[in-house]
# Entry
Amino acid sequence: MIWANPIGFIKAGLEASNAAATDRYFGRENRTVKVVGFTTKVCDGPQPQCTRRLTGEFNNDNMLERVITWVPDPVLGDKMVELRYSDYRDVGGGVKFPFRLHAHMGDHPLIPGGHNWLDLRASDVKVNVADAAQAVPDSVHNAAAPQVQVVKTQLAPGVMLMGGGSHNSVAVEFKDFVTVIEGPLNQQRSLAVIAEVKRTFPGKPIRYLVNTHNHFDHLGGVRTFVAEGATVITDDRNRNFYQRVVLAPQSRSLQPDRLSQRPFAPTGPGTLALQTFTDQYTISDGNETIELYHVDGLNHSDNMAIVYLPKEKIAINADLYSPPPAGGTLANVNANAVTLFRNIKRLKLDVAQHVPIHGNPGPNADFDRIVAPVAARAPATGGGG
# Structure
């Protein structure tokens, strides 16, 4: 992103041996811009994964208006990022700088309105400020890349919380297989979870991956589990996007993953790698059972599922309720937790323990004590940000 800002783009373009300029005419605006394109190395890893293509559009005043580049994304593959610069002002010393930056990424017809991610407006810009450059502390300069850590906690016999990071997974043992609830973030995290599941339940394949909802931080590892041979179970509202984008052979030249390197993996429409449901879905072998329920009245996501283990009386949720330490309370009970409370009552689930995808487990007694009074005062309509 340093090379994608106006100053960085010009510096990188001047240094690039393959930089080239062409004219592009925009008929809708009846104007021509100068387009400069080049590739630049962004890391010391293998190529082409560490090479990025950038194109920039300059107006008649030679001000950079737009930069387009591509970055790897665990869901979308090679993802386009577009940055638009405007409201250039003289900030002294003959320097002009844009006071507005608008950016969006991941354009796709199946993500309407979801690609705008930044609109930044500066109130003041100064150049050549004395002592502005800060030395990088040795502790930062020499720091090793953080390692993925999976911390395993038994919730019940055959039920393991795979924590140790910002997002949890839960592994549930069946007679002949294992089901994992949630494959978040990316391939790196999912590979670590898969390895821990194999150590915990040796000889049993991961047959199912339950995906609670379609937010990217919760489905970034879906492809990794499919490459492992698992079938993804998710809300039917996700079918089109998952078939045509998540599990489809999108270009992944910047960061190839296991699934893209296994072309025999079943990823096309109608594939057995994807199983969807509308209101309810059950996985059972006669002894262990997992029940999935659609969450009604939730603004946070219209394709959210909660997971319930009736034998263990465990409810697993994502983004709805993270329990405080036992006996504690929450400074704010948001609408998501109220919606979870109402859905549990609607479904008549006998819950003893809440297990969040974010945070630590907690007893239902605390959940009722904390959320029930807020639910009683809140309007009956659902919500959640």
